[in-house]
């Protein structure tokens, strides 16, 4: 572990706003050097979220294009969603696949857990590779059918240049996949 900083003391905390999706909490902090500060943070829904990189075959990934209210645009990314109460992330991943791309999976591989903006948000997302897909459909909560797009993995650099593929978690998932699929290539670059 690199850092040796002592966590600041929380002197007080209070809820300052709440919506259907988020709670905003204000923290009164004292750092180890005596400095006092006020921070705000968003608290997520508590069960976490999942993102799935579906592999149609060993050379092809599946993406979805869906409406994103934050940017009021359609964006390209990987299937994702919240972990429902009583679910483990693997169950949520398989459910989300069936809701969003109408495939289930017989094989999930956990790639990583990422955090979105940890400076002010406590949300965590588990990223999985799904392979050995089979047709399966569950009713989801999407307001319209999502466009499913197949993409050759070897053209991942072209995907990174797409104007509608900008969501950081999807980019992270893609790069984790590329790293997972080609560790020998990375090792040979390190020795060059």
Keywords:
192 residues; Nucleoside Triphosphate Pyrophosphohydrolase; seven-stranded mixed sheet; 4 helices; 20% helix; disordered C terminus
What does this structure look like?
With 192 residues, the chain is of the alpha+beta class. It folds into two domains: 9-43; 49-165, Nucleoside Triphosphate Pyrophosphohydrolase (Alpha-Beta Complex). The protein is 20% helix and 43% strand. The chain contains four helices and ten strands. The chain has helices at 89-100, 156-160, 168-181, 183-190, and strands at 9-18, 23-30, 36-43, 49-57, 60-68, 73-77, 80-82, 103-115, 124-135, 147-152. Strands 4, 5, 6, 7, 8, 9 and 10 form a seven-stranded mixed sheet that branches. It has a three-stranded antiparallel sheet with strand order 1-2-3, with no helix packed on it. A hairpin with an 8-residue loop joins strand 8 (103-115) and strand 9. Mean pLDDT is 89; it is low at 185-192.
CATH superfamily of the largest domain: Nucleoside Triphosphate Pyrophosphohydrolase
- The helix content, as a percent range, equals 10-25%
Mean of pLDDT: 89
* CATH topology-level name of the largest domain: Nucleoside Triphosphate Pyrophosphohydrolase
Count of beta strands: 10
The run of helices and strands is EEEEEEEHEEEHHH
How many helices? The count is: 4
Known CATH architecture of the largest domain? Alpha-Beta Complex
* Unreliable sequence segments: 185-192
The description of the largest β-sheet is:
7 strands, mixed
Label the overall shape. Answer: globular
Distance between the termini: 28 Å
Which structural category fits the helices and strands? alpha+beta
CATH C-level class of the largest domain is Alpha Beta
Rg, Å, rounded = 19 Å
Q: What would you call the quaternary organization?
A: single chain
Total of domains: 2
What share of the residues does DSSP label as strand, in percent?
Answer: 35-45%
């Amino acid at each position: 572990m690199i850092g040796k900083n002592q966590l600041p003391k929380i002197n007080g905390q209070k809820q300052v706003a709440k919506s259907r999706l988020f709670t905003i909490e204000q923290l009164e902090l004292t750092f180890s050097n005596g400095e006092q500060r006020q921070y705000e943070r968003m608290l997520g829904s508590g069960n976490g979220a999942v993102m799935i990189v579906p592999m149609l075959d060993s050379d092809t990934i599946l993406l979805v294009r869906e409406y994103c209210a934050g940017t009021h645009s359609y964006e390209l990314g990987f299937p994702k969603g919240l972990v429902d109460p009583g679910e483990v992330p693997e169950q949520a991943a398989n459910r989300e696949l069936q809701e969003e791309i109408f495939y289930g999976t017989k094989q999930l591989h956990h790639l990583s857990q990422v955090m979105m903006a940890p400076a002010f948000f406590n949300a965590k997302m588990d990223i999985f590779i799904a392979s050995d897909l089979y047709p399966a459909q569950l009713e989801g909560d999407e307001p319209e059918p999502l466009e499913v797009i197949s993409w050759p993995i070897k053209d991942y650099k072209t995907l990174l240049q797409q104007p509608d593929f900008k969501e950081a978690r999807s980019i992270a998932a893609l790069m984790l996949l590329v790293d997972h699929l080609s560790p020998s290539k990375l090792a040979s670059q390190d020795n060059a």
